[in-house]
Predict the 3D structure of the following.
Amino acid sequence: EAGVVQSPRYKIIEKKQPVAFWCNPISGHNTLYWYLQNLGQGPELLIRYENEEAVDDSQLPKDRFSAERLKGVDSTLKIQPAELGDSAVYLCASSPLRDYNEQFFGPGTRLTVL
Amino acid sequence: SQQGEEDPQALSIQEGENATMNCSYKTSINNLQWYRQNSGRGLVHLILIRSNEREKHSGRLRVTLDTSKKSSSLLITASRAADTASYFCATSGRGYNKLIFGAGTRLAVHP
C-alpha cells in the first residue's frame, strides 16, 4: 500500500512569492491533516479535513494561508505571500476515520524562504 | 501551543543500552501516542496507550502512562544504531483525534 505522497520535497523561494504544496493521502483515508513543523519542534496542526470539508482550521493563518481538498482526495496548501518566518517543514497526514487514532504521515515539504 | 514536553531534549547512548524518554502533558487525555521521525522524513507511529492503561509493550518498546502525574515514558531496550531518530509524544483528547505534539527527544545511538 502506497503511503502519503507529498510534493515537492524541497522548495526555495524569495519572500513575498507564492508557494503551493500538494498532498495525496493513502487511498480510502477520509481524514487529511496539514501540519507545520519548525526546526527542533513537534508538528502543529494547521487544518483538518473530513472528506472535502475543512472541519478545523482554527490554527491556519488565513491572511496568507489557504487550503483546499477538492473531491475529498488530494489537497493543496498555499501560502501567498510567503514570509521569512514561514520557513519550516509542512507535513501532510491522513487517517481512515475521524476517530481513528493513528495518523499516517508523508515525508513533508521543506520550505526555505529567502 | 504544544501540550507535551519531552525530557531529555537530547540523549546519546551506545548500542545495546536502554533509552528512556519522558513526556509530560497538561490536560486530560483520551490517549497518548509515540511517534518516531528519522532525519528528513515524516513521522511513523510507534505505539498508543489509552488513558485507562498503565503499561504497554511492542517489541523492544515499553510505554508507561501515569495519568495522576500527567506523564508517560518510552523505553527502548537493547538499542540499535537504526533507532537514531527524534521521538515525539502526542496526546489526543476526547472528541476527535486532534494530536498535540511535544518538542521531541533526539536520540543518538552510537555503534
